[in-house]
Amino acid sequence: MPRTAVELEYSVEYLSILDENGDLDTELEPDIEDDQLHKMFRTMLLSRRFDERLLTLQRQGRIGTFAPVKGQEACQIGSMPAMRDSDWFLPAFREFAAMIWRGFPLAEILVFAAGYNEGAAIPEDAHDFPIAVPVASQIPHAVGVAYACQYRESDDVAIVFFGDGATSEGDFHEAMNFAGVLGSPVVFLCQDNRWAISLPRDQQSKSKTLAQKGLAYGMPCLQVDGNDILAVYAATAEAVERARNGDGPTMIECLTYRLAIHTTADDPSKYRDEEEVEKWEKLDPLPRFQNYMVERELLSDDDIDTMEDEIKDEIDQAWKDAESKIEELGGPEVMFDYVYAERPPYLEAQRQTFLELRDREEG
Amino acid sequence: MPRTAVELEYSVEYLSILDENGDLDTELEPDIEDDQLHKMFRTMLLSRRFDERLLTLQRQGRIGTFAPVKGQEACQIGSMPAMRDSDWFLPAFREFAAMIWRGFPLAEILVFAAGYNEGAAIPEDAHDFPIAVPVASQIPHAVGVAYACQYRESDDVAIVFFGDGATSEGDFHEAMNFAGVLGSPVVFLCQDNRWAISLPRDQQSKSKTLAQKGLAYGMPCLQVDGNDILAVYAATAEAVERARNGDGPTMIECLTYRLAIHTTADDPSKYRDEEEVEKWEKLDPLPRFQNYMVERELLSDDDIDTMEDEIKDEIDQAWKDAESKIEELGGPEVMFDYVYAERPPYLEAQRQTFLELRDREEG
Amino acid sequence: MAELNMVDAINRALFEEMENDDNIIVLGEDVGVDGGVFRVTDGLLEKYGEKRVIDTPVAETGITGLCVGMAAGGLRPVPELQFSGFSYMGLHQLEMHAARFRWRSRGRYAMPITVRIPYGAGVHALEHHSDSKEVLYAHIPGLKMVIPSGPRNARALLLAAIRDPDPVVFFEPKAAYRAFREEVPDEEETLPLGQSETAREGDDLTLIAYGAMLHRALQAADTLSEEDGVEADVIDLLSLSPLDHERFAESARRTGRVVIVHEAHRSYGPAGEIIARLIEESFWYLEAPIRRVTGYDIHVPYFAREQAYLPDASRIVDAARAVLND
Amino acid sequence: MAELNMVDAINRALFEEMENDDNIIVLGEDVGVDGGVFRVTDGLLEKYGEKRVIDTPVAETGITGLCVGMAAGGLRPVPELQFSGFSYMGLHQLEMHAARFRWRSRGRYAMPITVRIPYGAGVHALEHHSDSKEVLYAHIPGLKMVIPSGPRNARALLLAAIRDPDPVVFFEPKAAYRAFREEVPDEEETLPLGQSETAREGDDLTLIAYGAMLHRALQAADTLSEEDGVEADVIDLLSLSPLDHERFAESARRTGRVVIVHEAHRSYGPAGEIIARLIEESFWYLEAPIRRVTGYDIHVPYFAREQAYLPDASRIVDAARAVLND
Ligand SMILES: Cc1ncc(C[n+]2csc(CCOP(=O)(O)OP(=O)(O)O)c2C)c(N)n1
Ligand SMILES: Cc1ncc(C[n+]2csc(CCOP(=O)(O)OP(=O)(O)O)c2C)c(N)n1
Ligand SMILES: [Mg+2]
Ligand SMILES: [Mg+2]
Question: How far, in Å, from the CA of C11 to the mean position of ligand 2?
Answer without folding.
Answer: 23
